[in-house]
Amino acid sequence: MGSIYNGNKNINIDIPEDVQYIMDTLNEKGFEAYAVGGCIRDSLLKRQPEDWDITTSAHPSEIKALFRNTVDTGIKHGTVTVLWGKNAFEVTTYRVEGEYEDNRHPTSVCFISNLIEDLQRRDFTINAIAYNTEDGLVDPFGGLIDLRYKLIRCVGDPKERFAEDALRTLRAIRFSAQLGFDIEGRTKECISEMSELIVNISMERVQSELDKILCSKNPGKIRLVYETGISVHILPQLDIMMNTPQNSIYHKYSVGEHTLAVLENTRGNHYLRWAALLHDVGKPDARIEDQDGRDHYYNHGKTGSEMAHQILRDLKFDKKTINIVTRLVKFHDYKTEMNEQNIRRAIAKIGPDIFPLYIELSYADLAAKSRFAIEKSFGYLKYLKETYEKIVERQDPLSMKDLKISGKDLLEMGFSKGETIGRVLNELLDRVLGDPSLNERDILLEYVRNHNLWGEQCIKRDTRNG
């Protein structure tokens, strides 16, 4: 089948066998078929594509007739998922879309027979590239050139693309962060001009894009969310942080610039990156200036934890993320005395499950402070990390579940269910945190018997024993 699209046959892309089979099957029946979008972009960048999408002149009913196992994933919009072996591939009919009344969904979809018209509706030039082995690379909007110059550029008029789907304003920043690309001038201008349209997008979709930005290799690109005016609509606390100074011998940046530096100092862990973004979110509210003009931020961790909880809820995050991130924000600047006993207590207080993340966040936070702060606190952090590793290696008890007795043992001793059992277990934990050698069943049981741990139950116990 001859090509009408003037494809570049000098570029070869390794197409997976299953994808090639699907395209060959469509071609044999007289339909056009190309791998398209992100898989071609990533292949050209020598990155491993996460999935392979196929675009075709065949209509959904014709696609379904050619393959035994299919799923109608988005059939109104022309998308059929073909199940082949252990893999699933989205096959979508060439289409153009009608008006966008809500900056997200088209009022209508019309199937067409021309690949170029289909590519023209896509968001960015680097995603509007198609390929098959017969015709080569079909790139009508200069995506390959933009890949070479590392640019994110809209297909056609940016205003039209962003009006069609306001989420594209965030997607541009996300691709910039993931790929390390710049956003082309006109495209960036239009993001700023149309930033308010993001309010028409569901918070779940906004959250997904923000998460991808933060978890990318360039989390500092979250700056663009502020610079383009998007954050004022979805994360106004970022704007406030960016405009809050830190007049302190411990700092060299504003709260916002410090936050961006901390982000760049952390590895790409979901919880760690969100904690880095929000660790100082309470500082603007907690900020006070002393008589010497120095800023102080008392209890900003607690304040920030409460704010982070609301922010993450508004962004529709899951309970686990909210729990972990808010605890990290609360304790990010927690300090204790430099001895094993107090460090064990710190681990128990902060949480054994997140203490490694707390240490990582502490290092990232310190590295973004002034030289004075680094020289003052680096030795403490080094001792904290080394001591924590020793404690973990020895398997010292750090939580109630590590105690050699349980609530069941206390019930058998005559305690009733309720707060008393929790209080007693907490007291026992405090003892073994001080001295792990006390964490033996007989020692703990004897301690309970010989000390007045019964509280209000003491009278009932004496009555039973009498």
Automatic annotation (TrEMBL):
Gene3D superfamilies: 1.10.246.80, Beta Polymerase, domain 2, cca-adding enzyme, domain 2. SUPFAM superfamilies: Nucleotidyltransferase, Poly A polymerase C-terminal region-like. Belongs to the tRNA nucleotidyltransferase/poly(A) polymerase family. It comes from Parasporobacterium paucivorans DSM 15970. The keyword Cell division does not apply. Signal peptide: none annotated. Keywords: Magnesium, Metal-binding, Nucleotide-binding, Nucleotidyltransferase, RNA-binding, Transferase, tRNA processing. GO terms for biological process: tRNA processing. GO terms for molecular function: metal ion binding; nucleotide binding; nucleotidyltransferase activity; tRNA binding. It holds the Pfam family PolyA_pol_RNAbd. CDD domains: HDc (cd00077), NT_ClassII-CCAase (cd05398). NCBIfam families: HDIG. Its cofactor is Mg(2+). The lineage of its organism: Bacteria, Bacillati, Bacillota, Clostridia, Lachnospirales. This is tRNA nucleotidyltransferase (CCA-adding enzyme). The keyword Glycoprotein does not apply. Residues 251-347 form the HD/PDEase domain.
